[in-house]
Amino acid sequence: MQSSQAKIFFGIIGILILGVIATVLIRSSSAPAGPGKYDAFAQCLKDKGAVFYGAFWCPNCQEQKKLFDSSIKLLPYVECSTLDGQSQVKACADKNIEGYPTWDFADGSRLTGVVSLETLAAKTSCFLPQ
């Protein structure tokens, strides 16, 4: 390699390494420490057979997820959209999911749209922390 090519190569490698380090630092500082406020609530919803169907491109689904804060990881969530955002996956089509968000419950009932945590608690008898 010529000297200028080597400088460019090592410069690019250095930038990539700094990018990886910055990404790790940003992600580690934004990760919540300890359990989330709604962890037990989200787990109870799952245990009671509630299922949340949504799509990554759906603004109402994002709003529904935000209600759970860092406990989102425990939600009984099913992604209905294909990766291209143009179709619905078979699992959701088989359940006749027609809009997002949709909540299905063990008793066979269904709620659509953004559902309040209070309504989810009443529907499932799960304790909602204040």
UniProtKB/TrEMBL annotation:
Keywords: Membrane, Transmembrane, Transmembrane helix. It comes from the Bacteria. InterPro entries: Thioredoxin-like_sf. The chain crosses the membrane at residues 6-26. PANTHER family: VITAMIN K EPOXIDE REDUCTASE DOMAIN-CONTAINING PROTEIN, VKC DOMAIN-CONTAINING PROTEIN. This is Thioredoxin domain-containing protein. It comes from Candidatus Nomurabacteria bacterium RIFCSPHIGHO2_02_FULL_35_13.
